[in-house]
Design a protein that fits this description.
Layout (H helix, E strand, L loop, with lengths): L5 E6 L1 H8 L11 E6 L3 H12 L3 E4 L10 H4 L5 E4 L10 H5 L3 E3 L6 H16 L2 H9 L17 E5 L3 H10 L5 E5 L5 H6 L3 E2 L3 H6 L3 E4 L13 H4 L7 E4 L8 H9 L4 E4 L19 E3 L11 H17 L9 H6 L2
Parallel strand pairs: 1-2, 1-3, 3-4, 4-5, 6-7, 6-9, 7-8, 9-10, 10-11, 11-12
Length: 333
């Protein structure tokens, strides 16, 4: 039986406005789009999938959970295309194990995350956390002992995936000497970007003024940024993490940062939201943001365009990008 060229989109009215409406001029007129507000709940969503025989479900943050028995309840449903990142509240792991094709926003947010990484790097070098606290809380006119620039700095990238490669582009005007550690990327990826490949994390951390941790969370990377690594950095170095919170041992990071020399810029944490009692809060050398590196509101359209491309590939029988299998699902926050 031929697959119906039909997509069922289930998200809130606001999310339709953020993700889908801005790209409707690119929608394939040969694909029928059926919309429903995510407030209908999981049972009604599944019933819509069953009745419409839509093979594709388009979801966002508010979408109801797709259960583990979806293959039995909506047998024509084959592909869940998520416009956002984490899927823990969107689809049951067992549904993926049972063969449901699932994708998320993948590399579409990489340049936004890279932009935020650059922001944290600059903010740390210019001691913005201390300055803002002094200006707003203490009503003072601060003169930090150390304010530095990014030009001609030695920058190390812990991880060399899509975000790191976008960051290399953004760093070009600063004439930085860039090196990176990633055991899985091919050699040509480094040479193409003019990036030196480090043979170990120890080499990376010991030989750079600024470290941007953009590594994925895997069994190998979990907790890999420990006190030993952080103490290899220059005493007045900068450590930024916009990758995954669990890659960093937060207790170790807090101990080293509390000494007052290492500047840290953190957007992701082991526990989110960051607990009010976290020892990272209040440190004058800690520039903290609330897991907001990407996408910015104006760049959600990038996620939508990525989703549309994946949907077109699905109907054309081509590979879908950013597929989330059970192993990748387990590593998501």
């Amino acid at each position: 039986m031929a697959v119906a060229r039909r997509v069922f989109a289930c998200m809130s009215a606001a999310e339709f406005g953020w993700f889908l409406d801005p790209v409707m001029d690119r929608w394939d007129p040969g694909v029928e789009l059926i919309r429903a507000d995510s407030a209908i709940g999981p049972d009604a969503m599944i019933e819509h999938l069953r009745k419409t025989e839509a093979p594709v479900l388009l979801t966002s943050w508010s979408s109801p959970l797709t259960p583990d028995d979806i293959a039995q309840r909506a047998p024509t449903f084959k592909y869940l295309c998520h416009t956002c990142g984490t899927l823990k509240k969107i689809v049951a792991r067992e549904a993926i194990v049972n063969g449901l094709l699932v994708s998320n926003w993948g590399r579409s947010i990489s340049r936004s995350v890279a932009e935020h990484t650059l922001l944290l790097m600059l903010g740390c070098l210019r001691n913005i956390a201390l300055v803002q606290s002094s200006m707003h809380v203490e009503k003072a006119w601060p003169k930090p002992a150390t304010i530095r620039g990014l030009f001609e700095r030695r920058v190390g990238l812990h991880g060399f995936g899509n975000v790191a490669r976008e960051l290399v582009k953004l760093l070009a005007p600063f004439d930085c000497k860039i090196s990176a550690f990633s055991p899985y990327e091919p050699e040509e990826a480094f040479s193409k970007g003019g990036v030196k490949r480090c043979g170990s994390l120890e080499e990376l951390y010991a030989s750079n003024d600024v470290i941007a941790c953009v590594a994925p969370l895997t069994d190998e990377t979990r907790g890999s940024v420990n006190e030993k690594l952080l103490r290899l950095m220059p005493p007045d170095g900068v450590f930024v993490n916009t990758g995954r919170g669990a890659v960093v041992n937060e207790r170790a990071l807090e101990r080293v940062a509390r000494e007052g020399n290492l500047q840290i810029g953190i957007d992701v944490y082991e526990e989110e939201p960051l607990p009010a009692a976290s020892p990272l809060r209040g440190l004058p050398n800690a520039l903290l943001t609330a897991h907001c590196a990407g996408p910015t509101a104006d760049r959600r359209v990038d996620c939508a365009r990525f989703a549309l491309k994946n949907i077109a590939n699905f109907f054309a029988g081509l590979p879908v990008e950013a597929v989330i299998d059970a192993a990748k699902f387990d590593l998501q926050t």
